[in-house]
Fold acid phosphatase.
Amino acid sequence: MHPTHHPKATAIAETAKTAETNHKTSTVAGKAFDRFLVIWLENTDFDKAAESDGLSYLAKEGITLDNYWAVTHPSEPNYMAAVAGDYFALDDDRFISMPKNVSTVVDLLDTKNISWGEYQEHLPYTGFEGFNYSNQETYANDYVRKHNPLVIYESVTDDKENLKNIKNFTQFQEDLENHTLPQWAFITPNMTNDGHDTTINVAATWSKNFLEPLLQNEYLMNNTLILLTFDENENYKLKNRVFAVLLGGAVPDELKGTIDHTFYDHYSEISTVEANWDLPNLGRHDANANVFQIVANKTGIQNKEVDTTYLVNNHTYVGYLNDDTVQLPAPNVSAIGVNGNGVLDSIKSQWSDVFAKQQSDGYFKSSTTTLVTGSIGDATTTAMGALVSGSAGVSALIAFGLALLI
């Protein structure tokens, strides 16, 4: 059942009284890290972010990823992509609830009982599914659903136990103090602190203030990897490259203050988790996404060199969420991930027939745009069709930096 889009404040307050919260943790050892925290900020061009005082300070404490890309515009499809391996052609920030047969990173983590959760600043109560929750004093934007990736997927929200893992920052502090943080977590500041409704200086200052004490916390930093990045850049006429930095106890001291030039995008967040814990894949863009190099070094994975000369990632494609005539794309049930593992068994059993039919019908097209004429400022872009068959690294189009719908 879909949640109420805009519940009244009285209804929210009443539900909050009985909302239950999980504080589950686990200790599943990874090959390069034992905990992965992802923090997203908003809408900032790479150079502006890198030059900010707060983020330049944090860069000295970690590894800057200077070739990290968002996958499209605007915000919401990027959040969707980071947990499910696709954004399904969404080209706006509307209320979306993806069908239950679309799997996410949660399904992968659950195969090994790896604890997971989200921490959303000013989420009114655990498991809230509404469109937004404004500041109750000023009525300014505060919590928004479009920045909460897992709540967009019914494969997560249809299970009441899962909803107990969608928490706010109060619960983050409780879990930190009680040593009950999950091993995978997605963290989103509110619309002020993430820079969406303010400036990069506000977001950078918040990031420094939030992370500086955490980086000194012995419990949290015990083999933890933190990714701090942005959903997208601000100027749609520029290539959609965003600032990203890896922090935490899993970062070797000799690599702090260094720069990694490897190509990554939001799909790398999933592939890195798959590689670290030797998990299956979703059969989507996660399967052939580069893995963060510090993880590749520990797993023997060879990352691809990607030519980004003509890559822009500032447009979408005709697909499921912007054209009612287009079917929901099946995952490639035969895909082999960069870690050598296949697709999650439950995905195979659910999607095999659909994938075979769509493949024979010539359904699959690229979900990334490439510059074909003009300058970046007034580019004409096109979605190029391709399909990764079997192995996730065989298509020559990958050499052009195309993220392929597999």
User: Anything to note?
Assistant: The two ends are 30 Å apart (CA to CA). Residues 23-376 form a domain with the Alkaline Phosphatase, subunit A fold (CATH 3.40.720). The chain has one domain: 23-376.
